[in-house]
Predict the 3D structure of the following.
Amino acid sequence: MNILDIEDLSFSYGGGRKGETPHPVLSGLSFSIREGESVGLAGANGAGKSTLLKLICGLLEPSGGRIFVSGIPVRKDTLGAVRKELGYVFQDADNQLFTATVHDDVAFAPRNYGYSPAETEAAVDRALQAVRLEALKDRPVYRLSGGEKKLASIATVLAVDSRIILMDEPTVALDPRNRRTLMGIVNSLPCAKLIASHDLDFIYDTCPRTLLLSGGKAAFFGPTQEVLRNRELLEANGLELPLSFSRT
């Protein structure tokens, strides 16, 4: 069963004002993700990776096509139901963390989804343990390092049971140790994941399939090993072989 279906999706920035020329970002994009599947989202800068994630969670409205999350069409009137199905890790953790302490940020979603106080505390403890931030539970967010903020933002998503998690550049600001921690977290999650990243080695280690975006379309959608070992295909779409493969 598919958890995410994208059908003939198009999106352009601009064009809303008279005489303004629209800038197309996505055009006729179609693909699906199955329940529990991890899919990498690769592409050069400007390929539309972040835009696609924002469209899926309803932060942007498509110019054309349709998006379904757990069979629910993504529209203004369905956003409440859609967002109960998915979690979204922003590229910039400062856009995700907005309360005084790590605890309150991680507790925000469970509280708003109707968890009891005891259930909320259990969810917070579980999420912080997963990202190894238990010791920072009561720390003010402004006192976190960049890597700690990234892990805290991921914990806010892990605190509720999402059927699909969208991640935008999740390894940014992480040192090698925390990157390995995140890799273990991603690989242990039973839910589906769509991971947009320039870190192709991370995609290789976490995602059996990869969607390569180029020119607003799918240049490739299939086995990760097949696309990430294809130097010609990657270079034609503004990318380079991952370090793991360029050394061999």
